[in-house]
Amino acid sequence: MRNFCRLWVLLALSCVAPAAAAELKVFSVGDGDTIRVTGTTGVNKTTVRLACIDAPETSQTPYGNDARRALLGELAIGTEVSLRTKATDRYGRTVAEVLKGTTNINQALVGAGVAFVYWQYIEGCDRETYSRLENEARLKRLGVWAVPGGIQRPWEYRRGRRSGSGAN
């Protein structure tokens, strides 16, 4: 009976032990809120849409290119990262907060004024921190906030392009 109990405890502990975090490296940076990562073998490539933020579209000059440069500045090709996965979007991308060490890159981009909090998709993220960072960037007039009230939001910009209004 004693050996059975030990076996049962070992089995129970193995079921609840945390899984080791996957080692990922940045393979490429798309725009200001999309990256591709690979495992350490470099074989499996995953597209990651940064959760809870929305960066200006590349065609929203100069802000879209500024956002991409800022993301590349934070995550140079080959940088090791980990993900806090939130979901998979309709395009099959992994939606996640990206961590470089202990730095939350999503939050860093909002704090630098190169991305907006994507309030429609904030679920699962720290609302208070994102709100504080966006407010601080706005008050300092950083990046997208250099224009009073900020530039046109990327989600509004995309909606205008889809409807054919061509709004910038």
Summarize the structure.
The chain has 168 residues and is an alpha+beta fold. It is 35% helix and 24% strand.
Characteristic key phrases:
alpha+beta, 5-stranded mixed barrel, 5 helices, globular, disordered N terminus
Descriptive report:
The protein has 168 residues and is α+β, with helices and mostly antiparallel strands. Helix content is 35%, strand content 24%. The chain has five helices and eight strands, in the order αββββαβββαβαα. It has helices at 2-16, 63-74, 105-111, 127-140, 154-163; strands at 24-29, 34-39, 45-50, 53-54, 80-88, 94-100, 103-104, 116-117. Strands 1-2-3-6-5 form a five-stranded mixed barrel. Strand 5 (80-88) and strand 6 form a beta hairpin. Helix 3 packs parallel to helix 4 (127-140). It starts with a helix and ends in a 5-residue tail after the last helix. The model is unreliable at 1-20 (pLDDT under 50).
| Helicity range | 25-40%
Separation, N- and C-terminal Cα atoms? 74 Å
The chain-level mean pLDDT equals 85
Extended strand count: 8
Which H/E pattern describes the elements? HEEEEHEEEHEHH
In DSSP terms, counting alpha (H) and pi (I) runs of 4 or more, how many helices?
5
Radius of gyration: 20 Å
Low-confidence parts? 1-20
- Widest sheet: strand order? 1-2-3-6-5
The description of the largest β-sheet is: 5 strands, mixed, barrel
Tertiary shape: globular
SS-derived structural category: alpha+beta
What oligomeric state is this? single chain
Strand content range: 15-25%
